[in-house]
Design brief:
about 170 residues; mainly beta; 9 strands
Length: about 170
Amino acid sequence: MLVLLNLLVILGFAPRLVRPLASTDSLSDADPAQSGYLPNHNMDPSIIDSPIFGVLWQNTFLSKEKWYAKPLVYTPNGARQLVFVASEQNWIRTMDAVNGTVINQRQVQSPFLQSDIGCTDIPDYIGITGTPVIDPATDTVYFFSKGYKDGGAIGVENGIYKYEESYIS
């Protein structure tokens, strides 16, 4: 019990050890209090209600592609600001935050078919649902993707989650 308590105390301090590099970076999807508000992104009501707020760029990808994982904004040391997105079709993309140009993209594995489990909470495909996390020390992004064993036969019995990592830029 004492070992578990010590581990919990150590883990309680872990979020304080990881900090973003630039003032507008978000290495995870929320602030430590999980309020959903990040004050370093100029999203206060006075900015949103002003004429300077609006869509900077838009991209169109696959027709049935959905995103449940939140996009992450990241600035590698000495480099341009990036946006990292991950979709339910298991596509990961790194884009230029200023103009939306796709810098890198790849499909990490074929996605799991929603029809294999009959649950309609997530339509069509189940891939990367959770928001990834970026390690700023290595510029590596970590996430889970759902697909099929060895990319082979479909069916619920062949479903598998993979722990993935990718260099972000």
